[in-house]
Amino acid sequence: MVQIDKLRKILKNTSLNAFVGWTMILLLALLGIGNFIYGRFMWTILIAFVISIIITPAIRMRKLSVMPSWYFIFLVILPIVGSSTAWYFFSTSIPFYVSVATIALLLAAEINWFTSVKMTYKFAILLVIVTTLAISGLWHLIEWLLDIYLGTSYLLSGLSPDAINDAVMQQFIYATIAGVAAGVLFGWYFMSAGNSYLVDVPTHISVETDDYITHRPPAPIRRLLGISDKTQVLAVRMLQGGLILLLLFGILRKDLSTTINATTGLILTFVPHMITRKYHIKQDTGLVLWLTLAIFLHTIGTFEFYNYIDNWDHVTHALSASVVAAAGYTLIRAIDIYVDEIYIPPRVLFIFILIFVLAMGVIWEIIEFLSDELTSTLGYNAILAQHGIGDTMLDLVFDLLGAILAATWGTAYLSNISYRLADKFEELADKKNAR
C-alpha cells in the first residue's frame, strides 16, 4: 500500500489561497524594508528568512499559485508584524514560539520534499516540538554570548543574575507550552484534513550514502574505551556501590537532595538491564558504563562537589549531555532503519542530535528551576539548584559540547545498538500483526 505524504496537506494550489499568501508576503517585505531603514537588521534578516521559506514551494515547483495554506502563514507572521510595528498584541511570548513552531514545520516539510531527507508527518511534528525548545535555548545563549563578548545588553541589562535567569526560565516554559500546543494542533490538522486535492510534489529519490554503508557492522563502544567487557562491568558495579553508599549517607544525614539524587540515579543505572530482560536487546557494557559514570558524578556533585569545585557542574552537564545525545542518536537511527518512509543522512542526523540535546538541556533547566522554586517554597534545601544566568548558559554550552562528542562518534560506535533496536521494532510489529 502506497503511503500518502500527509505533509502535502500544508500546501494549497488555489487562486484565493495564493492571493492571500502573496498579500502577506508583500506585507512582510514592506516590514523588512522598514526595519532595514530603521537599523533593525536582525528583524530584517529574520523576515527575509521567513519569506524564503514561504515562497520556496512556488519557486521550486515553478507555480506561483502553490503556497502554504494561509492559516500557516498567518501563524508565522502575526507575532512578526506585532514586533516590527510595535503593536504588541500579546501579554506573553507564547505566540512567538507558536510562530517558531510553524516555521519549523514548513522547513521540515520542504526538507522532506526537496532534499534526500525523508520523514513522516509524525516525525516532523516531533521535530517541530524539539526544535521550538532548542531555538529558545539557542536564542538566549546567543544573546548572552553577545552581551559577554560584544558588550550588548540583550540579557544582561542591569538586573541581578538570578532575576535574569528567572525571566529566561519563563521564556523556556513558554517555548515548551507553545511547542507542545503547536504539535497537538498540527497533528489534529494532518489527521482531520482530507486527502483530496493534494498538491503533487516531485519526489526526490533518497540514496543511502557511503557513510552508512561502510559502518555496517559498526564497532561496539568497548572498542572506543579500549577495555574488556569484564572490566567495564566491574566498574559499573563499583559505581553502583558508590551510589548505594551515597544513598545511605544521605539518609543518615537527613540530606534530602543527596538521598533523592542517589535513589533516582541508582534506579536509572538498572534501566539498561531492565530493557534487556524485557525486550531481549543485548546491552553494550560501554554505554552502560558511560551512563552510570554520568549519574555517579552528578550524584556525588550534590554532596558538596558542586559548591567547592568550580567546573564540576559543567563537566557533569557535558557528560550527561553526551549520554542523552547517545540515546537520541540510537533511537533516531533505529527509527531511520526501521521506517521505510524515514531517511536521515549522517550529516543531517548530526544536526538533529544537536537540536535534540539542546532541547533536552532546556527541559533540564526548567526542571532545575521548578525544583529550586518548589524546595525553596517548602523550606527544604534545593534538590537541583541554579546559580544565575551565567550558570544556566554555561550549562547549555557544555550540553552542546557533549552532544558534539556523542554525535561525532555515534555512527562508528552506536549504530550496532540502533540495528538491534530496529530489529526489535520489527519483531514487535510482526507479533502485533500476527494477532
Automatic annotation (TrEMBL):
Q: Does the keyword Cytoplasm apply?
A: no
Instruction: Kindly list the residue ranges recorded as spanning the membrane.
Output: 16-35, 41-59, 71-90, 96-114, 121-142, 172-191, 233-252, 258-275, 287-309, 315-335, 347-367, 396-414
Note whether Membrane occurs among the keywords. yes
For this UniProt record, the keywords arranged alphabetically read as follows:
Membrane, Transmembrane, Transmembrane helix
Question: By its UniProt entry, which InterPro entries does this protein fall under?
Answer: YjdF-like (IPR014509)
Q: What protein does this entry describe?
A: DUF2238 domain-containing protein
Which species? Answer: Methanolobus sediminis
Traced from the root, the source organism's taxonomic lineage reads: Archaea, Methanobacteriati, Methanobacteriota, Stenosarchaea group, Methanomicrobia
